[in-house]
């Protein structure tokens, strides 16, 4: 399957790799089919690229890569449309945002993907999680080693 994108140009994807979001994503309800693409220059970053709208790509990351103690609690009613029977079927990613000064992660509304069924859904997690978790910027401070 060949799709045109404004960010990545023309790309070929296997039709079996298409992820279906029956409800779309909030604000993008008309985009129901997506391809999850790796970023060629940053192995931490992925892109959910709409297969029907060339101009729509959403930056996503695995939250635990940046927030190691991230725990997400999702009501069963939110997960039931995904038909997840085993937690190993699920992949959780979060949307990357940008403010004037930093990058942020939406930890409150992760995207859950059923890897076997190739379906996904953005859900609202229970608990006190931030919509805009700010990623630290800059280089880590140097430590004296000798």
Summarize it.
The chain has 146 residues and is mainly beta.
Q: Average pLDDT across residues?
A: 91
Order of helices and strands: EEEEEEHHEEEEE
Q: Enumerate the spans where pLDDT stays under 50 for 5 or more consecutive residues.
A: none
Largest sheet: 9 strands, antiparallel
Corresponding CATH architecture: Roll
Let me know the CATH homologous superfamily. Answer: BH3618-like
Residue share in β-strands: 25-35%
The number of helices is 2
Enter the CATH topology name.
Answer: BH3618-like
Q: Compute the number of structural domains.
A: 1
Computed CA radius of gyration, to the nearest angstrom: 16 Å
Distance N to C terminus:
56 Å
Number of strands: 11
Q: What is the CATH top level name?
A: Mainly Beta
Fraction of residues in H or I helices? under 10%
**Class by helix and strand content?**
mainly beta
Shape estimate: globular
Please explain how this structure is put together.
The protein has helices spanning 63-66, 76-79, and strands at 2-5, 9-12, 19-20, 33-38, 46-50, 57-61, 90-98, 103-105, 111-114, 119-122, 133-134. It is mainly beta. It has one domain (2-131): Roll (BH3618-like). A hairpin with a 7-residue loop joins β4 (33-38) and β5. The protein is globular. The termini are far apart. The mean pLDDT is 91.
